[in-house]
Amino acid sequence: MTAVPDIEFRGVAKRYGAVTAVSGIDLAVPPSAFVALLGPSGCGKTTCLRMIGGFEQPSEGQVFIRGQDMAGTPPYRRPVNMVFQQYALFPHLDVEANVSYGLRQARPRLSSREIGQRAGEALEMVRL
Ligand SMILES: Nc1ncnc2c1ncn2[C@@H]1O[C@H](COP(=O)(O)OP(=O)(O)O)[C@@H](O)[C@H]1O
Ligand SMILES: [Mg+2]
User: Fold this and answer.
1) Could you point out which of 6, 22, 102, 113 has its C-alpha 20 to 30 Å from the C-alpha of 48?
2) Atom of ligand 1 nearest to the CA of 37
């Protein structure tokens, strides 16, 4: 017998008018698994999280949490929490400075050349 997934997507799509944010998502997160969604900016990661949280409804398919179809269940009645990405950003810093913030705090100190290079690699990886 297979354990009921903590999170399951069955044939999920989300469209905003003419824009298809995600489509054909089938996903099963096993109980207590630690999962990261990785992909370039705009590939639909946040849209998937918002559908788990109940902040968006799928255009197609179903989202299950611990085996329960979440259709029609509002965010405050779902057994999940969401940290919104804008809270992780410093509004007074630009993109590069936000990305390199942690490297600037590192002790022993890194050279600004290394900080710039590593931040650049991270930005390139996510195509920002
Ligand atoms: N509210 C919205 N209205 C219109 N298009 C949206 C909306 N939210 C997201 N999109 C579009 O859906 C796609 C996926 O966005 P998103 O889920 O934010 O990607 P990611 O989090 O992976 O960067 C992008 O093309 C984005 O422009
Ligand atoms: Mg996002």
Assistant:
1) 102
2) 22
Nearest CA among 32, 95, 99 for reference residue 66: 32
Q: How far is the CA of 113 from the centre of ligand 1 (A)?
A: 33
Q: Are 15 and 59 a contacting pair, CB within 8 Å?
A: yes
pLDDT tens track for 9-59 = 999 999 999 999 999 999 999 999 999 999 999 999 999 999 999 999 999
Q: Which helix (H) or strand (E) holds 47?
A: helix 45-53
DSSP string for 92-124: TS-HHHHHTHHHHH-SSPPPHHHHHHHHHHHHH
Answer whether residue 83 shows pLDDT above 90: no
pLDDT surpassing 60 at residue 1: no
Distances (CA, A) of 118 to 56, 94, 112: 34, 16, 10
Ion ligand 2, residues whose Cβ is below 5 A away: 45-46
Asked whether residue 76 carries a pLDDT value surpassing 70, the answer given is yes
